């Protein structure tokens, strides 16, 4: 398995990172090098091994479904790029 | 004033309590050193003299009232990954170069409760992704031992400021070695605790199943004192471990006779620079003199830790960093066609090349059709790595080896080749994958007079034991007390 130029374009869009045509070859070259290293994992026999997602393999703690935060939206929105009437503004999506 | 620079935290606390020095004088002293030397080193992203001195004045009042805690009045530098209310918290990125945090990380709250003064925010690889601090938007940090060499990363600023004695101690984070490798490269001590011991609340997330905050300082005794402040349960981090508080300094004085040190044969083979090998062998000889026994062990799966890490960490990063979209905080592209274009341009402009690379790797390994081959496969090998350690700890108390395969390298030596940079993490990433505590302490010097770090890995929650091992070594040696020659006249 190797990563292709088209894979790079597709993944860049999935990740919402603009990669221009001028950049894509250089980006691809470095990613191909990294995947060359990652490929050595495939040689290891993992038959019957359970995947491990957490350092100590313990389940995540759950908390009660109740509000614990106080309303600080003014402080949080004071650092936003664009806010109006306590709403975050983004470019129009539906005409 | 050089005695202040060399003084440990307990000594500084005593000086403050006995009014030999005030917190304002102490803070001023380190601020002056930063003003003098940091133009060259670039260890700090933010220094705010007035704010730090105001904190010191408050601390002096607490001391005058006889209510001083363990760290009251002592200035501590914080890695710029910890959200600090009212302070720029940039994570070394253009994306957050305008982000004044509206809240404090749990760790920042803990230090405030202990009375510490915030000395400044330290430089780091962008979003903690790097092993040289060359990916910082704010420029690279220089190694105080040799300004032509990198300080390691990602916590290069925290490491360099301690090495140059610009701060008595600092906080840092370690996802794949970001505390230990810079500690090794700059001749200071750094501990990555057991996963879950220190709350991740308010610590900007990179790879959530691996990220762990920890202390950096001049000595193991200081590290123990800082860990006492940092460790503890926090309900706001779902992976925070609920366990009774302990004093990590409680065993420092206990001798090492009979201690079993496991040496993984995989850590002393091909790829280890001879100068680093010699320094580590010297440390082991010292431990034998102190009564320790050497046990031969094997960690066969650890040889695959780097590829496993560079699947799991980017996968988690690609998810965590999706929050940076130019909508609620941080950078937003000045011009764009529509919403999707705003996201794409904001993220293309706000992230540097290494961060983009890791997001792309992570997005690819999690994408349809590749999940089993990469992410699931990596998680299975992760279990094999953890099992190797579990087997090893049946036969030894701690595991030792080099922290990094070489001493600090030159700027640009590896930054153009990501694979070479990633392979520098060969000895450090396995502890993160297994969730185990690991630390680095200075154990000598290699080529060009650059420091060498000894890595000590312990079983889960064995921090007190590891710190005792490190402290006993430091009672018998003085590597940790050495100061870079150039710093005085930098």
Would you write up a description of this structure?
The complex is a heterodimer of chains A (95) and B (490). With 95 residues, chain A is mainly alpha-helical. Chain A has a domain at 5-43: Orthogonal Bundle (Histone, subunit A). Chain A is built from 3 helices and 2 strands. In chain A, strands 1-2 form a two-stranded antiparallel ribbon. In chain A, a hairpin with a 2-residue loop joins strand 1 and strand 2 (87-88). Chain A is flat and about 55 Å long. Chain A starts with a helix and ends in a 7-residue tail after the last strand. The relative contact order of chain A is 0.08. The model of chain A has no long low-confidence stretch (mean pLDDT 92). Chain B has 490 residues and is of the alpha/beta class. Chain B has a domain at 2-258: Amidase signature (AS) enzymes, CATH 3.90.1300. Chain B contains 16 helices and 11 strands. In chain B, the strands form 2 sheets. An 8-stranded mixed β-sheet of chain B has the order 4-6-5-10-11-9-7-8. A 3-stranded mixed β-sheet of chain B has the order 1-3-2, with helices on both faces. In chain B, helix 3 (23-41) packs antiparallel against helix 4, helix 6 runs parallel beside helix 7 (180-186) and helix 10 (305-320) packs across helix 13. The chains are: A mainly alpha (95), B alpha/beta (490). Chains A and B meet through helix 1, helix 2 and helix 3 of A and helix 10, helix 11, helix 12, helix 13 and helix 14 of B.
């Amino acid at each position: 398995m190797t990563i292709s130029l088209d894979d790079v374009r597709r993944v860049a869009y999935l990740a919402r990172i603009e990669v221009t045509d001028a950049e894509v070859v250089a980006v691809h070259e470095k990613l191909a090098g990294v995947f060359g290293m990652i490929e050595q994992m495939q040689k290891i026999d993992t038959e019957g091994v359970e995947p491990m997602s957490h350092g100590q393999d313990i389940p995540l703690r759950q908390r009660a479904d109740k509000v614990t935060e106080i309303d600080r939206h003014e402080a949080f929105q004071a650092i936003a790029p664009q806010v109006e009437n306590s709403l975050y503004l983004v470019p129009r999506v539906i005409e | 004033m050089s005695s202040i620079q060399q003084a440990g935290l307990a000594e500084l606390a005593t000086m403050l309590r006995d009014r030999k020095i005030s917190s304002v004088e102490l803070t001023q002293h380190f601020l002056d050193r930063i003003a003098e030397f940091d133009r060259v080193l670039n260890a700090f992203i933010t220094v705010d003299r007035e704010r730090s001195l105001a904190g010191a004045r408050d601390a002096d009042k607490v001391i005058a009232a006889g209510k001083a805690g363990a760290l009251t009045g002592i200035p501590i530098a914080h890695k710029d990954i910890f959200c600090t209310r009212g302070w720029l918290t940039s994570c070394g990125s253009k994306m957050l170069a305008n982000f004044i945090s509206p809240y404090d990380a749990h760790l920042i709250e803990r230090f405030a409760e202990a009375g510490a003064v915030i000395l400044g925010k330290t430089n780091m690889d962008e979003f903690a992704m790097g092993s040289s601090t060359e990916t910082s938007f704010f420029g690279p940090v220089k190694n105080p031992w040799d300004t032509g060499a990198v300080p390691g990363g990602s916590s290069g600023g925290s490491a360099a400021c301690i090495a140059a004695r610009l701060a008595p101690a600092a906080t840092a984070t370690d996802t794949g070695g970001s505390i230990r490798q810079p500690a090794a490269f700059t001749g200071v001590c750094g501990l990555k605790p057991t996963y879950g011991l220190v709350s991740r609340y308010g610590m900007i997330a990179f790879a959530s199943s691996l990220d762990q905050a920890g202390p950096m300082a001049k000595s193991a005794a200081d590290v123990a004192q800082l860990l006492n402040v940092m460790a503890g349960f926090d309900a706001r981090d779902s992976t925070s471990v609920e366990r009774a508080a302990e004093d990590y300094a409680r065993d420092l004085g206990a001798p090492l006779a009979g201690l079993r040190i496991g040496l993984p044969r995989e850590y002393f083979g091909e790829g280890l620079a001879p100068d680093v090998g010699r320094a580590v062998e010297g440390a082991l000889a010292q431990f034998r003199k102190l009564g320790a026994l050497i046990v031969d062990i094997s960690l066969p799966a650890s040889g695959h830790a780097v590829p496993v890490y560079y699947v799991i960490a980017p996968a988690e990063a690609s998810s965590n960093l999706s929050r940076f979209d130019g909508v609620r905080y941080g950078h937003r592209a000045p011009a764009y066609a529509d919403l999707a274009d705003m996201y794409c341009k904001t993220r293309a402009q706000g992230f540097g090349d290494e961060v983009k690379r890791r997001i792309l790797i992570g997005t690819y390994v999690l994408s349809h059709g590749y999940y089993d081959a990469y992410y699931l496969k990596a998680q299975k090998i992760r279990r094999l790595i953890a099992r190797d350690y579990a087997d090893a700890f049946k036969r030894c108390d701690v595991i030792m080896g080099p922290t990094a395969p070489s001493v600090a390298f030159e700027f640009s030596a590896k930054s153009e080749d990501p694979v070479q940079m990633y392979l520098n993490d060969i000895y450090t990433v396995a502890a993160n994958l297994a969730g185990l505590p690991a630390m680095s302490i200075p154990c000598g010097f290699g080529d060009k007079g650059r420091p060498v770090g000894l890595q000590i890995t312990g079983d889960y929650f064995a921090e007190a034991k590891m710190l005792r091992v490190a402290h006993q070594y430091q009672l018998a040696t003085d590597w940790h007390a050495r100061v870079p020659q150039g710093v005085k006249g930098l």
